[in-house]
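[User] At your convenience, examine this fold.
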Amino acid sequence: MAKSNNAYIKKQKELQRKKKREEKLERKNERKKNSAGGSLENMMAYVDENGNITSTPPEKKQQDS
């Protein structure tokens, strides 16, 4: 009797693991779909001459030679 009960428990645990994997994959795909993007330009930050962090690149300064 214990053997059949043990098999039932193993089957239930395997079903729970499978369901958990599927939910995790679904959440991963949802995050990918709703992401703002991961390009380098979106992640770049710049520091201006005053030490403040900005998202726009500094203007090129021409040096007199």
